[in-house]
C-alpha cells in the first residue's frame, strides 16, 4: 500500500516524540506533558516492536526494534529496561542500518586457487569439519583452535566450549575478551575469588562521587554517563575523571586529574597510604572481612613467545602492608606521576570520607595494562580499606566493552583456562563439566594452553594448523598486527572465519562462513552488571546466513560428535541455555529461567527465588551470604576478601630519545570496535570517516604539524600514517599521542606492542613508545 | 532525512530561556514538561549534514546544560 512521504514523516515524528516521552517518564516519575502523552502513544501505528539488548557495548541497553513487513525499520530505547530507561546512544539507535549493507556476507565462500568461490553452506561446513578432523588426526588435538568473542551469544560460546573442551579435548579456545576484560577477571578472582562486579547500575542513583579511572565513559558508555550526569544535575553528585588524556568525559566532569601513563599503580597506593595514615580506614570492616597478601614482583611483560608466569600469594599482616605503603607518600608519588600532592590528597579524602558514597568505574585504561590485574587489585584495596563496597552507591565497578563479555566469555567461560563453572585446573570443575556434557572426565585437559596473544604466536610458529574465528576481527584488534597478519596468511594454518561482513581477517580465510546478525537469530547476552538478557529472532537473515551456534553444532555433528549436540535448529538457543544453567545452580550464581528472561528486559544473577541480587556479598541483599556477618566474600574459602600488596613497576617500553612519545589507543563514540559494522552505517561513517592521530598543540607546533596534516607514527614494530587532530575530540598530554583503532585502512595496531599482564594475559594497548614524522 | 528526539535539560533557572532559544530554531519542535526541568526536542532535518549542523547549534545554546539523545529515525528518500 502506498504511503506518502509527508504522512510517513509525520508518523515517524510522532514515534520519536513517544519515545522521548517514555524515556522522560522513566527518568522523572510523574512527569506531565499534558495531552501530548495520549496523542503520542496513540501514534505507535502498525509497527511491531520487539525487545532485545543492544548489539554493541557492554552496558546492555534495552532496545525496541520496530518491524514492518519483515524488515527492521526503527530502533528506540526500551523504557522498561532498567539499564537505559529509554535512552540510547548514537550507535544504538542506528544499529540495524548495517544489515542491508551491499557487501553483506550472504553465502559461504571457499578459497580455490586463490579466488573465493560461492559455495553451498552444507558443502563449506563439510570442508571445515573434514579439515579440522584431518588436522587433529595428523598433528594432534592441540593443533586446532577456536577464537571467539565477547559478542558471541551465551549459546554460541557454550557450544564452542563444549566442542573444543568436551568433544575434541583441547583447551585451545580463547576469545577477544582476553583483549578487554581478562585483567578485570583476574582482579576479581584474586581479590574476591568470584568474578564480576558486586554492584549494579542502580549504584548511580545512590553515589555521591563517581571516580572514573582511565575511562572515557562519555564516549564508551554514553548511556551510563548520561545517567551519571543526570544525578550530577539533579542532586549534585560529583564526577572526577582520572585519566592520561583530556576527553569529553573530562570536560563534563567536576574535576579532571591527569596522570603519567602507568603511574596509576603508584597513585592508587598513595590513596591507600593517605586513607591509613589519616585514620580513615574502616578498621572494623577490614578486621572482619579482609586478609593482607603480597604477590611476586618484577613479573615480566610477556614479550617473548611461550612466556610463562605463576603468581605466588604470601600472607602478610597489616603492619607489613602499612610499611610497604611508605614508598607511596603523596610527595614521593607526585614526583613521577605528574599528579599533584593536592590532587592525590583530594582523591584520598573522597574515598576516606565516611559520609560520602563512592563508585569507581573503569574499563580499558586499567585492564589493558601490563599490570592490569594489579591495578584492579589496587582499586579494590581502596574500597576494602574504607569498607565502601557491596552497598548501594558504594563499590568498585569494572565496565565491560562488549555486549556479552560477561555473559559469554566470563560466565560460559570461553577462555583457555575456563569452564562454564570454574577452571580447567580444578578437578571438581572438570568433573561437573564432564557430567553435564556427558563426556569422559579424562577428556577435558587439566592445563590451559594458549591465551589470545600466545594463540596467534602459535599460528605464526606453525604450532596451530587450523583456527576458526567467530564474531571477531583479530587482524584489526590484536596488538602488533604487523606480526599476526603475515602469520595468518601462512599456508601452514587453515583459517575459517565466521562473520557478517568482510573484514581484514576474512581476507586471509580459507573458508568464510556467513553469520546471522544479532536480530536475525535468537540469543542471550550478559552485560556488565550481571544482567542476562534474551531476545527472539526478529527478522530473517539474507541468503544462507546462519547463527554461529548452529554452524558450530553442524561441524560437531560432521566430526562425529552428534550425540553430544542433540539440539534442534528451531529451539537450539533455549535447549542450550537450559543445559548451560545447570552449571550455575545455587544461590551464588543461579541463572534466571528462560521464561523470566522472556518476560523481562533482563534480570541480574544470582537469581534466587524469583529475585535479582543487586549487591553481592552483602547479607542484606545477597541470600548466598551465610556466615552470620554483615558481609560475606564467599568466593574465598575463609569468606574474606584480599587486600593485595602490589607495587608500581614501569611499563616495558617508555618514551626515549629515539621514540619520544607515548602511544595510547582506544575507541570513539561513533564506532564499535574495529568498525566492521558501524563503518557500514552511513551516518556513523560520515560522522567519523577515518582514524586520526591526536597530538598536544605544543608538540604539533614543535613538529610544524597542523590539523589534517599527514603524520607517520612509527614504533619498533611498524608504522601508520594518519591525519593529525589537534584540539578536536580529545587532548593528549604533552609527549603523548592517541589514535583510535576502528579504521582498518589506518592500522594503528601495526604499531602497538604485544606486551601483556603476566597474570591476566591481557595486552596493553595504551602504552608503547613511538616517534612521529610529518609526511 | 533524519528525525530525532532529545531530552534537553536547562541550566538551573533557565528553562524559559532554553525554550525561547529552541523556539527560534525552525527544525525543532518542542514539548516542555509541565512539572519538571526538561524539554523534549524533536528535530527534523533534510540531510545528515544539516542534522549535524543543527546538533552543533543546539550544543552551543547558553541555557542548555545537557542534551540527551533518545531516538532517531531516518526516513527513506523514496517511500
UniProtKB/TrEMBL annotation, chain A:
UniProt-annotated binding residues for [4Fe-4S] cluster: 54, 57, 61, 89
Compartments where located: Secreted
Any GO MF annotation of the entry: nitrate reductase (cytochrome) activity
Co-factor requirement: Mo-bis(molybdopterin guanine dinucleotide); [4Fe-4S] cluster
EC number, UniProt record: 1.9.6.1
Cofactor: binding details: Binds 1 molybdenum-bis(molybdopterin guanine dinucleotide) (Mo-bis-MGD) cofactor per subunit. Binds 1 [4Fe-4S] cluster.
Keyword annotations: 4Fe-4S, Electron transport, Iron, Iron-sulfur, Metal-binding, Molybdenum, Nitrate assimilation, Oxidoreductase, Periplasm, Signal, Transport
Endpoints of the signal sequence: 1-34
All copies of domain 4Fe-4S Mo/W bis-MGD-type, residue ranges: 47-103
Alphabetized Gene3D superfamilies for the sequence: 2.40.40.20, 3.30.200.210, 3.40.50.740, Dimethylsulfoxide Reductase, domain 2 (3.40.228.10)
Any Pfam family matching the protein: Molydop_binding
Post-translational note: Predicted to be exported by the Tat system. The position of the signal peptide cleavage has not been experimentally proven.
GO cellular component: extracellular region; membrane; nitrate reductase complex
GO biological process terms held by the UniProt record: cellular respiration; Mo-molybdopterin cofactor biosynthetic process; nitrate assimilation
PROSITE patterns the record matches: 4FE4S_MOW_BIS_MGD, TAT
Keyword Kinase set for record: no
Sites where the protein binds Mo-bis(molybdopterin guanine dinucleotide): 91, 151, 176, 180, 262-264, 364, 368, 473, 498-499, 521, 548, 665-674, 749, 766
Catalytic activity from the UniProt record: 2 Fe(II)-[cytochrome] + nitrate + 2 H(+) = 2 Fe(III)-[cytochrome] + nitrite + H2O
PANTHER family: PERIPLASMIC NITRATE REDUCTASE, RESPIRATORY NITRATE REDUCTASE
Family to which this protein belongs: Belongs to the prokaryotic molybdopterin-containing oxidoreductase family. NasA/NapA/NarB subfamily.
Protein function: Catalytic subunit of the nitrate reductase complex NapAB. Receives electrons from NapB and catalyzes the reduction of nitrate to nitrite.
Complexes and interactors: Component of the nitrate reductase NapAB complex composed of NapA and NapB.
Protein name, UniProt field: Nitrate reductase
Organism: Sediminicola luteus
Gene: napA
Automatic annotation (TrEMBL), chain B:
Protein name: Uncharacterized protein
Native organism: Sediminicola luteus
Amino acid at each position: 500500500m502506498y504511503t506518502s512521504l509527508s504522512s510517513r514523516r509525520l508518523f515517524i515524528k510522532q514515534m520519536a516524540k513517544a519515545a522521548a516521552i517514555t524515556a522522560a517518564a522513566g527518568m522523572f516519575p510523574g512527569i506531565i506533558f499534558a495531552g501530548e502523552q495520549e496523542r503520542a502513544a496513540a501514534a505507535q501505528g502498525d509497527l511491531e516492536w520487539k525487545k532485545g539488548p543492544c548489539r554493541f557495548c557492554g552496558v546492555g541497553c534495552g532496545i525496541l526494534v520496530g518491524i514492518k513487513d519483515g524488515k527492521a525499520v526503527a530502533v528506540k530505547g526500551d523504557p522498561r529496561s532498567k539499564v537505559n530507561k529509554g535512552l540510547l546512544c548514537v550507535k544504538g539507535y542506528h544499529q540495524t542500518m548495517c544489515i542491508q549493507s551491499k557487501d553483506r556476507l550472504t553465502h559461504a565462500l571457499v578459497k580455490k586457487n586463490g579466488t573465493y568461490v560461492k559455495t553451498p553452506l552444507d558443502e563449506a561446513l563439510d570442508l571445515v569439519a573434514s579439515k579440522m578432523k584431518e588436522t587433529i588426526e595428523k598433528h594432534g588435538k592441540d593443533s586446532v583452535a577456536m577464537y571467539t568473542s565477547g559478542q558471541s551469544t551465551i549459546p554460541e560460546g557454550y557450544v564452542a566450549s563444549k566442542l573444543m573442551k568436551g568433544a575434541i579435548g583441547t583447551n585451545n579456545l580463547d576469545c577477544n575478551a582476553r583483549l578487554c576484560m581478562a585483567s578485570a577477571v583476574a582482579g576479581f578472582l584474586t581479590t574476591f575469588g568470584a568474578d564480576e562486579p558486586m554492584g549494579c547500575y542502580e549504584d548511580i542513583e545512590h553515589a555521591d562521587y563517581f571516580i572514573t579511572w582511565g575511562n572515557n565513559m562519555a564516549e564508551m558508555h554514553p548511556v551510563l554517563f548520561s545517567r551519571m550526569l543526570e544525578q550530577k544535575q539533579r542532586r549534585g553528585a560529583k564526577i572526577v575523571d582520572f585519566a592520561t588524556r583530556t576527553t569529553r568525559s573530562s570536560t563534563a566532569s567536576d574535576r579532571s586529574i591527569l596522570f603519567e601513563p602507568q603511574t596509576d599503580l603508584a597513585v592508587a597506593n598513595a590513596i591507600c597510604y593517605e586513607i591509613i595514615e589519616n585514620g580513615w580506614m574502616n578498621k572494623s570492616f577490614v578486621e572482619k572481612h579482609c586478609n593482607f597478601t603480597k604477590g611476586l614482583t618484577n613479573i615480566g611483560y610477556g614479550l617473548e613467545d611461550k612466556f610463562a608466569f605463576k603468581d605466588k600469594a604470601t600472607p602478610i599482616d597489616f603492619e607489613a602492608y602499612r610499611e610497604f605503603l611508605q614508598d607511596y607518600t603523596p610527595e614521593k608519588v607526585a614526583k613521577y606521576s605528574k599528579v599533584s600532592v593536592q590532587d592525590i590528597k583530594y582523591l584520598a579524602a573522597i574515598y576516606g570520607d565516611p559520609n560520602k558514597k563512592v563508585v569507581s568505574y573503569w574499563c580499558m585504561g586499567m585492564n589493558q595494562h601490563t599490570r592490569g590485574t594489579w591495578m584492579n587489585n589496587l582499586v579494590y584495596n581502596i574500597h576494602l580499606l574504607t569498607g565502601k563496597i557491596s552497598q548501594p552507591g558504594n563499590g568498585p565497578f569494572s565496565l565491560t566493552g562488549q555486549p556479552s563479555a560477561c555473559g559469554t566469555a566470563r560466565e560460559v567461560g570461553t577462555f583457555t583456562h575456563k569452564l562454564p563453572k570454574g577452571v580447567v585446573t580444578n578437578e571438581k570443575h572438570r568433573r561437573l563439566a564432564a557430567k553435564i556434557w556427558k563426556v569422559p572426565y579424562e577428556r577435558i585437559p587439566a592445563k590451559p594452553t594458549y591465551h589470545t596473544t600466545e594463540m596467534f604466536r602459535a599460528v605464526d610458529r606453525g604450532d596451530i594448523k587450523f583456527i576458526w574465528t567467530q564474531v571477531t576481527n583479530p587482524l584489526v584488534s590484536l596488538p602488533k598486527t604487523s606480526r599476526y597478519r603475515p602469520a595468518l596468511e601462512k599456508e601452514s594454518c587453515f583459517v575459517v572465519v565466521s562473520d557478517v561482513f568482510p573484514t581484514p581477517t576474512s581476507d586471509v580465510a580459507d573458508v568464510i562462513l556467513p553469520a546471522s546478525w544479532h536480530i536475525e537469530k535468537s540469543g542471550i547476552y550478559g552485560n556488565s552488571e550481571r544482567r542476562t538478557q534474551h531476545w527472539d529472532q526478529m527478522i530473517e537473515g539474507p541468503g544462507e546466513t546462519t547463527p554461529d551456534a548452529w554452524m558450530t553444532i553442524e561441524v560437531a555433528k560432521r566430526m562425529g560428535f552428534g550425540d553430544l549436540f542433540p539440539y534442534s535448529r528451531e529451539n537450539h538457543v533455549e535447549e542450550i541455555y537450559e543445559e548451560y544453567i545447570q552449571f550455575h545452580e545455587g544461590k551464588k550464581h543461579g541463572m534466571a529461567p528462560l521464561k523470566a528472561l522472556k518476560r523481562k528486559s533482563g534480570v541480574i544473577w544470582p537469581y534466587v527465588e524469583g529475585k535479582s541480587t543487586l549487591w553481592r556479598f552483602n547479607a542484606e541483599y545477597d541470600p548466598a551470604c551465610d556466615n552470620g556477618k554483615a558481609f560475606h566474600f564467599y568466593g574465598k574459602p575463609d569468606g574474606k576478601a584480599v587486600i593485595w600488596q602490589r607495587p608500581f613497576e614501569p611499563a616495558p617500553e617508555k618514551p626515549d630519545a629515539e621514540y619520544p612519545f607515548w602511544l595510547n589507543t582506544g575507541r570513539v563514540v561513533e564506532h564499535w570496535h574495529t568498525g566492521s559494522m558501524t563503518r557500514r552505517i552511513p551516518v556513523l561513517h560520515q560522522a567519523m570517516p577515518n582514524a586520526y592521530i591526536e597530538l598536544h598543540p605544543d608538540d604539533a607546533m614543535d613538529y610544524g604539524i597542523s590539523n589534517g596534516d599527514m603524520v607517520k607514527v612509527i614504533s619498533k614494530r611498524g608504522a601508520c600514517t594518519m591525519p593529525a587532530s589537534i584540539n578536536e575530540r580529545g587532548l593528549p598530554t604533552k609527549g603523548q599521542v592517541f589514535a583510535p583503532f576502528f579504521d582498518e585502512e589506518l592500522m594503528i595496531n601495526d604499531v602497538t606492542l604485544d606486551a601483556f599482564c603476566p597474570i591476566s594475559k591481557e595486552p596493553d594497548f595504551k602504552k608503547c613508545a613511538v616517534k612521529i614524522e610529518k609526511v | 532525512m533524519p528525525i530525532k528526539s532529545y531530552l534537553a535539560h536547562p541550566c538551573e533557572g533557565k528553562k524559559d530561556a532554553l525554550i525561547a532559544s529552541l523556539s527560534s530554531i525552525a527544525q525543532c519542535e518542542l514539548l516542555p514538561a509541565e512539572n519538571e526541568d526538561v524539554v523534549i526536542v524533536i528535530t527534523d532535518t533534510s540531510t545528515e549534514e544539516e542534522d549535524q549542523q543543527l546538533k552543533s547549534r543546539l550544543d552551543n545554546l547558553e541555557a542548555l546544560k545537557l542534551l540527551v539523545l533518545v531516538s532517531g529515525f531516518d526516513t527513506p528518500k523514496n517511500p
